[in-house]
Amino acid sequence: MASVAFHTLGCKVNTYETEGMLELFEQAGYSSKPFDEQADVYVINTCTVTNTGDQKSRQMIRKARRTNPNAVVAVVGCYAQVSSDEVAKIDGVDIIIGTQHRHKIVDYVKQYQQDHQMIVDVGDVMHLNQFERLKIFSYENRTRAFMKIQDGCNKFCTYCIIPYARGHIRSADPREVIDQANRLVRNGFKEIVLTGIHTAGYGMDFEHYSFYDLLYDLTTKVEGLKRLRISSIEMSQITPEIIKLIDESPIIVDHLHIPIQSGCDKILKRMNRTYTTSEFEEKLNALKKGLPSLSVTTDVIVGFPGETEEDFMTTYNWIKKNHFNQLHVFPYSQRKGTPAATFDHQVPGNIKHERVKHLMALSDELRTEFASWQIGKDLEVLFEEEKDGYMQGHASNYLLVKVKDPRIQEGEIYKIHITDQIGYDLVGDISEES
Question: Are the C-beta atoms of residues 392 and 412 closer than 8 Å to each other?
Fold first, then answer.
């Protein structure tokens, strides 16, 4: 039996697309192998968010060729899209596919095996207007399934290469999304995570169907779905009707990831983020008032060109005041091809590193405090695995909960009474009300 091995770099969307391509190979009779073992085909699904992502992609290409010099090596994804000429010069690359036409990958492998001519399929993504269908109906983990609902981004933040790699927003057909969700639930999944390059931008390319409409349909037309999670949403996309739906639906979780990127207006403007901290804060307060149990997490970039120590402390204090429950902190990475890469006053690496450490310490503090607020409450927990003698899984607010009880089954949801915390993880017992 022929075999295929994947290595995936970057975001959850890439992970989804890898799963989609793997299903195509399995349908064609291939078995899946770990990337560090000998396989007949290697697929490197690349990331180009940072120059480091490019470098890691090149390392994995060379590793595949060393592991099996006779294998077919396919390079797909964002780095292949943005820098296809560069990828083509790397010794041992046989197939290059950008961020479209991944559904053709098995056919391209067959074609290459026949004529041994390099295949390059990299189109102009800026003129794409159709969503590429890569459907996934099974994952190794049977508790949570990611479902990609859109591709592309219209924002053009000054630090970001992704619109050039993925093109403008393109949304999946709503009927196909509902159909895929129904099949995932029938295959045993309790939770679906909606994901995309700009997830809540879904529907911006439709006339009469919005992201809210999709949320409503998923919560009312997918029988047996227990949880629906939004991977990320911009504050500008959180409408009163979405807040009302989250409040009223027992299916949409009480956790939102809302990127801020900086708590300093000067830096937000240089990033082309199109909102101010006061506008964001006003909406955040309305959101917390409307949804008192909501957990809000965010992304922050530190060391953006021109960020002074005073600017950084403005961000630090603003985040602390607004009590996000967890931070994903990234040092600014100079990405060739973006406007910010040419900005004056680039911040030295050692200063960026210290600022990351400072904000991560704040994140730990905020997470621990948020966890302490849960003690004494009953939380719905989807259990995912056994680890260190505990069954553990995530509550609706995305805190990790650990329980020692032989009755708990993996992949099931239980009401857990929270009794203690270990750092920012929670410990509890099955509630008597269960």
Answer: no
